[in-house]
Amino acid sequence: MPEVNGPQRLGGWTRFVTARPRLTLLAALVITALAVLAGSGVADRMGSGGWQAPDAESTYATKALEREFPASQPNLLLLVDSGGASVDDPVVAAEAARLAKRLAGEADVVGVQSYWQDKAPALRAEDGKEALIAARIEGDDKASGEVLDRMAPAYRGEHGPVRVTIGGPVAVQHEMQTIIEDDLLRAEMIALPVTLVLLVMVFGSAIAALLPLGVGIVAILGTNAVLRGITEFTDVSVFAQNLTTALGLGLAIDYALFIVRRFREELATGAPTRTAIGTTLRTAGRTVLFSALTVAVSLAAMLVFPQYFLRSFAYAGIAVVLLAAAAALILLPAALMLLGPRVNSLDLRKVLRRGRVKPQAEAGAGWARFTALVMRRAPVFAIVTSVGLVLLGLPFLGVKFGTADDRQLPASSESHVVQQHLRDGFPGSPGGSLDILAEGGATPAQYAEYRGRIAALPGVLRVDGPLTEGRTAYFSVLGKGEPVGEETQRLVKDLRAEPAPFETSVTGTAAVLVDSKAAIGDRLPWAVGIIAVVTLLLVFLLTGSVLIPVQAVVLNALSLTAMFGAVVWVFQDGHLSGPLSFTSTGDIETTLPVLMFCVAFGLSMDYGVFLLSRIKEEYDRTGDHEQAVAFGLRRTGGLITAAAVILAVVMVAIGTSRVTNTKMLGLGIALAVLMDAMVVRSLLVPTVMKLMGRASWWAPAPLRRFHQRFGLSEGETAAPEPAARRPGPGTEAIPDPVSDPEWVPSGT
After folding, report:
1. What is the largest CA-CA distance in the chain?
2. pTM for the full model?
3. What are the DSSP calls for 383-401, one per residue?
């Protein structure tokens, strides 16, 4: 059997990353500086939409109506408040007419209409004290936002007898984008110092604690540059920047934790610096590579969806994962080569301990006792934990899907205030109508006959139109139900099924939701299948087992139940809306569960790979299944928990955002990460592997031969020893500062 810790032949990768460490780090510094320049202003090029499927009927109809009937699709609203007077007061009407005329003269503004033009009831508040001026700003999100920035100061505020506030979709999107940028900066200011303190507590050494932060910063800045390049070719959501920060810090810290930890273990045995780096890269480095691939695959699955909101997270996620892994496998070894034993310098914990030396075995002994207890009562822990996770996920059975609107913003934001006034004080409901695009031309009698038939449909309150332009027309249908309620969604399907002597396309908020749900439903099996198949393959290559990959996928999915249950209980049902400062809409935006599943599943596999790789390494060395499980948990339990806590801190910092979707994403994934590390990895994995016994490592002969040829694992490959044989002192695993080197699990 080869010596696990003896002199090793340096591999080509080790020679490459340690040959010229100063040059490597200097090149990285230059590239990072260029990335800062390339990525500057990336947020200004991003959009705040992307929830619609681009090939959907509603998307086609919306674009056609914007082109042919811009007044039918206003995205700018001026809420005119007359104070105590009536909006029909001559002085008020004169000032409002002046504002509308001025707005119509603005560049890139079309389709201006106001209550004072034709006294349309839908544009007048029921109390007669407020009315609307509506218009459309042409251009994409970026262009319309720039127009709004230019003209808004001239309209917002007091104008003689009236006061104007600005709302509408373009104002909501622009305000959301601005708030996200500000919140992201604040989250980084919170996460970085807290993360540094936690890293110092984990490593002790201030030098070692700075290394993961450096890797994370390189990954974040590099990803911003990548996203800036992607915006030249396709739309990218501004929300993706939040994932960049969270994963950049979280995964970089995870990877650097395991590499630096293993490097310090090797140094503790007296290995030279270069040899320690070589062993680290063959073991922890190989695991980091596997982990990065599993996370990247989970995030890449979002590319199968047509909505650019989801695709943006795939772009950002894949880039940041690969950059974090590259930095950890190239820059970190170069830094360790220069530091050598000085990586342990500046132990700040000595100040806190006031000179008291903590026994090396203390932390590891705690995990040893805990693991022994869990494995001794494996059936009890397995059943109780599984049932508990399922119960936590039950609220998700009542999930209701909706669309994102102004209520994502803080209640005090201007555009939210305007939309809330429309909901509370105007007839109908903003965004509640359905628009029918009619193409191909028809006679007035045919239009009238079609209007009569759709007016007779169940759920229709009123039909307006048609308004015609050449061979194109459109009808506006107001339903009886809530804007995106089940009744209105049924009405969308009824309208689309209604025959007509011309081509019809239905759009509106409810139609967008129907199409979005259909697009996600059609592609969700593909996304889940890609994640499952590739994950099974990667874990098989790591372990050589058929059953362990299945176990990993099932337990990972189970670890997400608490997150999904909490999302519905908190954000849909509105519990904790006061303390968390958000407005509950009574539903969950359709794409959010998909996004959270892909991200959280990938992060869960990240921890799973680290644990399984250490179990596999010990099993290959000793052939003792139970000892391997106990050893793996003892060696990685504390580190995985520390990594999860640090990542949760970053996600909670993201969760302090004032935008509800970002808050949901941050807090939900933080919960999933903690549940996975502290419940699934600590309780379910050891109990399930204990119950499965040595059968965990079973694979049919053809697959065993395949793994022997193509498989990879952490550590040197060796034939397993008989289960009864215990390693002696000469082959015992290397001690580390937080493990108990003398502990051997008792048989149970």
Report:
1. 98
2. 0.84
3. HHHHHHHHHHHGGGGG--E
